[in-house]
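User: Could you walk me through two proteins back to back? I'd like the raw sequence and the structure tokens for each, with a short line separating them so I can tell where one ends and the next begins.

Assistant: Of course. Protein one, sequence then structure:
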Amino acid sequence: MALGLALGVVVVESGGTTTKLGIAPAAASATPAAASATPAAASATPAATQNASNNADCELIVPARPLTATGLATPYQLTGPGGQDPAASGCTQANPNLRAFVQATILDPATGRLWVYEPLVETNGGTLAGTNGGTLAGTNGGTLAGAKCVNGLGDSLFGQVAYCNSVPFYAAASRAIQAGRLRIPKTGRSPLTGQPCPTTRSFQLVDQDPSDDVTTRYLLTASGQTAQDSAANTALLPGAGAIEGGQTSGDNTLLDTFILPALGCRAFTAPDLSNAGRPGTSQTLDELSAAASQRAPIALVPENDPMTTVNGQADRPKTNLYRLGVGQPLVTGVSNEPFGDSRAGGQQADTPANFCADMLNVQTAFIAADTERFSARPSPVPATGSNLFTFLAARLSASFTNLGCQAFGLHNTVSVTLNAQGEAVAAAVSLVPQAPTQPQTPTQSQGQDMQATPTPSTIIPTTVPSPWLPWTPWGDYGDPGY
């Protein structure tokens, strides 16, 4: 089997949480947690967790051999930075600002079959509230290096997202697609609007940090314990509530749970082995779907994404590392045009300025055209917007600011009205098309931050072969070294 494992930490939209991956001790047990535990045995109460509101750093302890079946079935441990107590640091699953979520997508290269699985994250030192379900088949794993885990460039971390084994996964997926064993269904058109259904690479959807969450859902008990969100655990824990990885407006959950249903479209799913094989979504499935169906303009992770900058400056190697984790083509050459695929005809140069312009022009028109439909839908984050329309408007306005789009001579197309609690309750938009008038490419980081310099074992491809394959944009060179 080939496995792609995406790790993510959920933070509020304005937060700056940094998550480091920690290695499980060599003597740590790697047996699946299949026995239920009493909900009363919690490691920390939610009240204690909420008291540590100033902390923005957590550590996620990865189990031994995380890509094996046993490793996937072993809970990850969320704990405070530098050995701090989870309750004292706020790094508990009961804290809505610092929760962690893990998701795996599994491919059998021989048949092209796909599955998803949601390894459990529990507060360090706690016990399980339910059971870990599913029958898994895995590969040989190892340490973080052995599992090809990446959470940034050197000590300059992405922040809320990390990934493991994504590069080999997308390479295996590419081979299976070329051989006709893996078929990615087309997204099709909305039966309500007649327009193409959006993807995670659509400018109708993206924000300041595209492809930045997993669609994992857990159950959380009143005492702060977690369990996989399965029918069995729901019956076992009738008082538990659902928490999910994208509940703070991540692109993947926004697309799969809110946008596509509102348009009558369907997300690409695979059997969820942690929930008795019921259809499940994942970040990786979203990216495969986007690579197969998205037409120009194609939204790729920009160099001014706050998660890929170093000391506030654009950094191409770090941006490319992030793109590798979600199977996107790399930023290449002085023209920043990685589009060797003829389907991307008409795509503007892949620059931060053009990302901003396309986001403003395409997304503003999208939410304006569907104002009535989205206004009748619930908000993903009520504290941000009163409904789906006002949420999307507030999100677009915030992305304009966070990406520094004004530096390219562009203007915010959204004006939101806030209530006393800071929630957007109304919005007005401008549909006047814009084009950048300032330099297309921001100042590149030249490596002054020595901590962010790639190690010799880190190989970042610099050329894109032709024809370009969206899921393996640099070609299949085996293990690229991380």
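----
Protein two, same layout:
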Amino acid sequence: MLTDTHAHLDFYDDLDPVLIAAQAAGISTILAIGIGDGPATMHRALDIARSRSTPKLRLYATAGIHPQEAHQATPESLAKLTTLAADPLILAIGEIGLDYYHADNPDIDTQQSAFRAQMRIAAAAHKPIILHCRTSELATPQAKARYGQADAAQDLLTLLESDWAPTQLPFVLHCFSGTQADANRALAIGGYLSFAGNLTYPKAVTIQQVAAAAPADRILVETDAPFLAPIPLRGQQNHPANVAHTAAYLATLRNTPPGDIAAQTTANFRTLFSLKTEN
């Protein structure tokens, strides 16, 4: 059975067929990411997990303030996040992090302040964090002009090393798209690498090399649905069922049977979030 470690279930207008297809594809667990359309709606993933989870398709949730909404990390929003973090169905705080990809994103200080505040909330709740980070190398020209030489990935890893590593709690680099050096730094302080549909793209050679060599007990698979549909569905709306394509591609990269990848990544998910093994 497969686990989709990262899906935005609250972004679908009609969730029923999405969940039915996921179960038919052998998906046993989905982690619904709770960023909503901003802090005011970051509870929606938890509402879905509460109302739609079944013994055959377990749904869990996260809550967090995305770096693009870092300017909305007000005392009121952070208080709401603290309350959500206490719910047992909330497995992690996220997705949070840094994003210097678009010129209209909040400034660096605002993003880093919001990131630190949410790390503190996660640490107090004793829960992992799910991290968003877009490489600055691919940023728009306008963003490069605004953010200068700052690199989101390096800033993120530095903050993790200084502020998160002392907690000894794990974290997930969602939709990993960094280098081997980035992966090594993350793995050294308890990180997990989650691979999404872009792993299957022909130009994703560096990501593929990292995925092939990563420790077996630190890999996860995800869809980031409804975004980032894998080959052969690239360009279409993505669905949790499609995590099977990414898992199969990862199995090929690692010269491992697909069933073993499914079992390993699901076991890793349960270890990461201290979930009991299900029969």
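The chain is about 40% helix and 15% strand.

Let me know if you want the two compared in more detail.
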